Structure prediction request, 118 residues.
Amino acid sequence: MSGYLTTHVLDTARGVPAQGITILLYRVSGNTHTKIAEAVTNADGRTDAPILNKDDFKTGNYELVFQAGTYLRTAKLINSGTPFLDEIPIRFGMDDAAAHYHVPLLLSPFGYSTYRGS
Prediction:
C-alpha cells in the first residue's frame, strides 16, 4: 500500500467545519513550486477525496495553501475587506511512502494551528 494525503479545516471561532475553502497543493523542490492538486472543502470541512491519492503519492516536500480570506469574509468573521489571514501556506515533508499523512487546519480570524493528524 502506498501513502496518501488528506486535510480538513475547522472554524474554531464558530465551532464548525469550514465549508468552501479552496486548498491548493504544491510539490516543492528547492525554489520550485509545482501545483499538483486543487480542492474545495465540503460541509464536513474535508475534501471529497484525498488531496493527494495513493497513485500520485511521492515522498518529498509539499505545501498546502488554504485560501482562507474568502471564507472569513463570507462567514462574516472579519469586519473589513482586508483579512488578517488570507492565504495560509503550510510547508511539510512526507518521507514514509506507505503512510497516510493528514494535515488539518484549525482556523480563526486572527490565528491558526496545524499538526500531523491521523
